[in-house]
Amino acid sequence: GNQIKVASFEYCDREIVSRSLDGKSCRLDLIVQTDQGVFINVEVQLLPNEMVKRSLFYFSKLYDKQLQKSEQYEELNPCVIISIVNFELDLGTENYLTRYQLKELRENVTLTEDADLFFLELPKWKQAQSLEDVPDKIKNRLFRWLNYLTRSDVKLEQQIMEQDEIFKEAHKVEAKFCADDENWFAYLRREKYLHDEASRIPYIEAKAEKRGIEIGEKSGRLIEKFENAKNLLKAKVDVSTIKQALKLTDDELNAILKD
What we know:
alpha/beta; two-stranded antiparallel sheet; 10 helices; globular
């Protein structure tokens, strides 16, 4: 496959909204475009979810968005989706970094390099590390970044910053971010939300199972109904029409309007 080299880039809009009212929209953590025209999306996930399908969904939206400016297929640029996850994926491999493209299975011939998906599993990376190999691995920038991001070895992190100017700059930016009260408290609120959600979901599922409720199916239908209602409200559809079309209860409608 292609060797991805980024000489320069620009930040792009983070939100990609579905064209249809009942379609899903998504927010991507970071989207940049290289000077070669390649789009790169970096997504970081802390809690387990359908990451493979999620990555394909992000690719489809990013690829499709390009046709809003031109309808010429030959002008479509490659899209690279990089998923960094703090959980293990069921990919059938022990490798912590995997890469996928569209290929012909028997002869391993690449159909196109426009779809390029990377998955980086942090737990597998931590398990694969050996302190004996550090002198060699510190030369690898991927290793340096992952050690920095996961705080795996504080002394090694300091050594990396002394040897690589990029990590000195990253540390300065992080320190400035943490010194900003508004940013810091927003980060803490986000962390609290993630921990609360991780604790709340098992409790709700256990309670629902005890009552004999198929909570997954029911919640899925309810979430879909709410998303459809929100999209229709954004499209200026009359509230009474929405209530009748989606068969909303008064409580459901009030919850949507408050949200």
